[in-house]
Amino acid sequence: MCESRINCYYIMAFKSTKDAIAGEAYAKKRIAAAIMPLPSEISNSCGLALRFLHSGKEEILAFCETFPLPFVLYRMNTERINGVREVIKLAEQK
């Protein structure tokens, strides 16, 4: 379970690189986030993700409500179990 930001982080995945870059621009003045390579545990996206840097789950979910592009939001644990990090899908907008 993600009790602290040390144990997990939140990422937003996109279907296209264009959406990932536009998503980063949209987030820039709204929430602390940065583009990162998509973790290997998630394979059905463009290869880029937006990682939320200092925000908690509720702030991130509120941000997602205003987000104008398709995305999938995941919570990713930092600890690997049998070589794999647990990934939980939290929200999706098509």
* Mean pLDDT, all residues: 92
Shape: globular
Oligomeric state of this protein: single chain
What is the share of helical residues? 10-25%
CATH architecture: 2-Layer Sandwich
CATH topology annotation: Alpha-Beta Plaits
- The CATH top-level class label: Alpha Beta
- Proportion of residues in β-strands: 35-45%
What key attributes describe this structure?
94 residues; five-stranded antiparallel β-sheet; 5 strands; 39% strand; Alpha-Beta Plaits; alpha+beta; 2 helices
Précis, in short:
This protein is 22% helix and 39% strand. The protein is an alpha+beta fold and 94 residues long.
Could you explain the architecture of this structure?
- With 94 residues, the chain is an alpha+beta fold.
- It has one domain (8-93): Alpha-Beta Plaits (2-Layer Sandwich).
- The protein has two helices and five strands.
- The protein has a five-stranded antiparallel beta sheet with strand order 2-3-1-4-5, with helices on one face.
- Strand 4 (71-81) and strand 5 form a beta hairpin.
- The mean pLDDT is 92.
